[in-house]
Design brief:
Chain lengths: 209, 713
């Protein structure tokens, strides 16, 4: 007999999982959204497959963890390890959601792309907007400058997101997490923007000629 | 909480009693509770020896697409016939208080007993049968439609008129009606082919020897051809018998002295339109006069033996008896069906009497039929499949909607039927029909304009945005020209603009523009009084055209099926009608309105038998439907309407799973918009290429909004 999927708990799980992956850095979740859908889903899907394979949350998580830690950012894997432990704790507390629950796992697999998109888009919109607004100004990607100016620079984008999420706690969480992400990944943004500038300059020069 | 839905019965009772000078003899609330309980009969004696009674007329409705609407019309006719019977028969006074499709509750004042009323009722139906079959529209008598709509066929040889339901005794009336229809046609818009086909069907008299052109031999050869199979054989046969002077026929087809009237010449003249229409009408007039005289002299059964053989062999009083089978007047039942034989294929309740043909049963004729070696096939004579009630219901439906050809077979036209209770009278119903038609015409004119522009090499895209812009331009023009009066009935432009501005009704507008262009909307107010049951008869959807094996396949049923299976799609259409009519009465789609508690609550949509709060349904589903409609992309061999209905259904069933698929198959990144890739995506993006920003993808605000709404489902 078909069972109803546990939507509320799975939403909570996804938020926790995406947050952990995002904080662990590396390319666990894409920095720019122009990546293919597989880049969004790779690590979350891997966790689900491991759990499904063993039909045991603990065993599945351990195997997934070793893979994730290999691919995470060198510096951040130490710093964000507690996040992984928190995720494991949550999974163990809610193991009945995953063990012998193909319906929940299948539902998660089907809906993963939409869930990751929903998590990443607003956050990357804010960080990307800040980086773009300060293109050619590497000092703006210093920690103090970000803390001082981040919310001011991206105010129009926050207003845009407020149309979707309202002005409440949810929006504040998104902005705070985006700021933390930018702080943690500012070197990557600096490098990426420089690369993009280098790519665009010859074209602009050609257009100018 | 909904207010008392039976308040209108209280009001109608009090008004009626006041009009009769019997105020305070019985409480309106007592009558309303009787109606709510479904009481069949209730009586209260009055001091003057008369009595007041609440009488229920019950007539069952068969829930089959082929006969449903016709059965509703039949019941409306019966309900009005009862009132006429009582009042014109001097049996007392009678007023209709409330009705659904099967039950009619009357307030009666007089001295007659029920069996007297029943007898008079039968007589009234008997007297009204010719009007029921062939009468012009008269809603006050429960007569709907027009026989002229049934005579639009171009071929006579596929039984395009449901003659199998018409009793032999009414054939002279039918022929008179056909004659007056043919002679009343406007000469300028006269269609020669249709006119000859009509005459051919009704006045064909056996077979003729005709010179037919044999392509293999390259010469004319004599062949024996049935007049019904060939209009040329029919005309030459009429000329041979002296019913149609040959000279007049030659003049009508503009033939010179040396010209020969053969089949090839006849077809060529018809094809290029070189026919003198005035002389053609004169020839037809002569023919009709001559054949009428011949019929008067020799009888229909002799002159038109083929037609006579097809007509229903039944006495009219027997027909009335069978028509009333299953009905109840108060506590009296008309259930004396003692005729044996097979039961009706549609209702299963009465014995079969009418032969099954596509014009009677639609495309599903003989579907799911297991042949019996002991009985003839339903297509053959001697094997009847339908009872009198179902047969006449089908006839009434065709009389109302007209006929059409589907894959060369004549069938009753298909429509979308929606019911609604509200405070609307017949004039309001007619105004609503006109308004919906005007909106449909407006949409069609926009579409036509786009098609014209495309044929000139321009590339406009027909979309809601296009309609919006065009409307704004027109309204502005009109404002300048005549300065609009506030408070007037909205013009089609204003009504359409209001519908497009409202997110809840936009999908309904899109549904309207997929409706057939050659059909019109009809809105009927059933019953009597202030609170009416409206029947919206909306045009059916355009068929799905697929290219297959180098040819074209037209599927008439695919889109209507997809639409009627989807509750979401039904809600969108109901939301639109609700906005147009402006009241909060209940709407019914694929549901039968009933006057039982919970069966006609205000602010409720009844779809596929389930009740849903209308405001909640509109709020809940409009986001999904709007999203689905906006992202679905046109595909060859697909119906856009069916595709977005399907997507909306899937979004409701598995919101985030389906949404993932939509995102995956939508162009979002720069490279997706390259020539090489852009046609490979199944869905349209919700933002333009220009909106690609620092995230590397198109603006995702609309997608985020929908995810939020989906999570609340």
């Amino acid at each position: 007999m078909p069972r109803q999927v546990n939507t509320t708990e799975l939403d909570e799980f996804c938020q926790l999982l995406f947050r952990t992956l995002d904080r662990l850095g590396g390319d666990l979740l894409p920095l720019f959204l122009s990546e293919r859908p597989t880049a969004y889903e790779k690590y979350p899907r891997l966790l689900l497959s491991c759990i499904r394979y063993y039909d045991n949350v603990e065993a599945g998580f351990e195997e997934w963890k070793s893979k994730v830690l290999r691919d995470a950012s060198d510096y951040r894997r130490q710093q964000e390890f507690p996040e992984l432990l928190a995720l494991k704790k949550w999974l163990l507390e809610h193991r009945n959601l995953f063990e012998e629950r193909k319906d929940n796992l299948n539902h998660l697999k089907r809906s993963l792309y939409a869930r990751v998109y929903e998590y990443l888009y607003p956050r990357r919109l804010l960080t990307g907007a800040y980086a773009k607004a300060n293109r050619g100004n590497p000092d703006a990607l210093e920690e103090d400058a970000i803390r001082a100016n981040f919310r001011e620079v991206i105010r129009p984008h926050i207003a845009k997101l407020a149309q979707v999420y309202g002005e409440g706690e949810r929006l504040q969480t998104i902005v705070t997490e985006a700021e933390e992400f930018l702080l943690a990944n500012r070197q990557r943004y600096r490098w990426k923007l420089r690369e993009m500038e280098a790519m665009e300059t010859p074209e602009q020069e050609e257009a100018g000629n | 909480m909904n207010r008392n839905p039976f308040a209108f019965v209280v009001q109608a009772t009090e008004e009626t009693l006041n009009n009769w000078g019997l105020a305070d003899t019985v409480s309106g609330h007592t009558v309303a509770s009787l109606v709510a309980d479904g009481a069949a009969y209730w009586e209260q004696a009055l001091p003057d020896g008369s009595h007041l009674a609440v009488i229920r007329l019950y007539s069952p409705v068969v829930r089959r697409e082929e006969v449903f609407l016709g059965n509703v019309l039949l019941n409306d006719f019966l309900s009005k016939a009862l009132m006429r019977a009582v009042e014109q028969g001097g049996l007392g006074r009678m007023a209709l208080l409330a009705n659904d499709l099967e039950n009619y509750y009357y307030l009666y004042h007089g001295e007659a007993a029920l069996d007297q009323m029943a007898e008079r009722f039968r007589q009234e139906i008997l007297d009204s049968l010719p009007a029921l079959y062939f009468g012009d529209e008269d809603p006050a008598r429960g007569i709907y439609g027009d026989v002229g709509q049934m005579l639009t066929f171009q071929l006579a040889n596929r039984e395009p008129y449901p003659i199998f339901v018409v009793p032999k005794a009414l054939l002279p009336v039918l022929l008179n009606k056909v004659n007056s229809h043919v002679l009343s046609l406007d000469i300028n818009s006269l269609d020669i082919q249709k006119t000859v086909a009509t005459l051919c069907f009704f006045y064909a008299r056996g077979t003729r020897q005709v010179d037919k052109f044999d392509k293999k031999k390259g010469a004319f050869v004599k062949r024996s051809v049935s007049e019904m199979q060939s209009d040329f054989a029919f005309l030459t046969g009429a000329a041979e018998d002296g019913l149609l002077p040959l000279g007049m026929l030659r003049e009508a087809f503009v033939l010179g002295e040396g010209d020969c009237l053969d089949e090839k010449v006849y077809r060529d003249r018809k094809k290029v339109g070189s026919v003198d229409k005035e002389k053609f009408v004169a020839a037809i007039r002569t023919f009709l006069t001559n054949i009428e005289a011949k019929i008067a002299k020799e009888g229909v059964d002799t002159v038109l033996a083929s037609l006579y053989e097809k007509a229903l062999d039944i006495e009219l009083w027997e027909l009335v008896r069978r028509l009333l089978l299953g009905t109840e007047l108060g506590f009296l039942g008309f259930n004396d069906d003692n005729v044996g034989g097979l039961s009706c294929r549609f209702c299963g309740a009465s014995s079969a009497l009418v032969r099954e043909k596509t014009i009677v049963s639609g495309t599903g004729m003989t579907k799911f039929f297991n042949p019996s070696p002991k009985l003839p096939h339903p297509k053959q004579p001697g094997r009847e499949s339908l009872c009198m009630r179902c047969g006449i219901s089908s006839y009434l439906e065709t009389k109302l909607l007209g006929m059409m050809f589907a894959s060369d077979m004549p069938i009753p036209k298909q429509y979308n039927i929606i019911f609604h209770y509200g405070r609307h009278n017949e004039i309001a119903a007619r105004e609503l029909a006109v308004l919906i038609d005007d909106i449909l015409h407006l949409l069609r004119s926009f579409r036509q304009k786009v098609e014209d522009q495309r044929s000139k090499g321009e590339r406009p895209f027909f979309s809601l945005e296009y309609v919006k812009e065009e409307l704004a331009r027109r309204i502005e023009q009109r404002r300048v020209q005549e300065s609009l009066d506030q408070g007037k009935i909205p013009t089609a432009e204003q009504a359409l603009a209001a519908l497009i501005d409202d997110e809840a009704t936009v999908p309904g507008v899109e549904i309207l523009w997929y409706m057939r262009r050659d059909a019109e909307t009809q809105v009927y107010a059933m019953g009597a009084g202030d609170y009416r049951l409206l029947v919206f008869v909306l045009p059916q959807f355009e068929p799905l055209v697929r290219r297959r094996d180098g040819g074209i396949e037209v599927d008439w049923n695919f889109v209507p099926k997809r639409f009627s299976r989807s509750r979401l799609a039904a809600f969108t259409l109901l939301a639109l009608l609700r906005k147009l009519c402006g009241c909060d009465g209940p709407y019914y789609f694929q549901s039968v309105p009933t006057l039982s508690p919970g069966g006609f609550d205000t602010n409720t949509f009844y779809v596929q038998g389930k009740a849903e709060n209308a405001d909640a349904a509109i709020r809940h589903f409009s986001a999904i439907v709007n999203f689905a409609r906006r992202v679905v992309k046109w595909q060859d061999g697909h119906s856009l309407l069916a595709d977005w209905i399907l997507l909306a259904e899937r979004l409701e069933e598995d919101p985030l799973g389906t949404f993932s698929e939509v995102l995956r198959r939508t162009p979002m990144r720069k490279r997706d918009f390259n020539k090489e890739y852009r046609d490979k995506f199944k869905f349209r993006p919700l933002a333009k290429f220009e909106s690609i920003d620092e995230t590397g993808v198109i603006d995702g605000t609309e997608y985020l909004k929908l995810i939020e709404q989906l999570k609340q489902l």
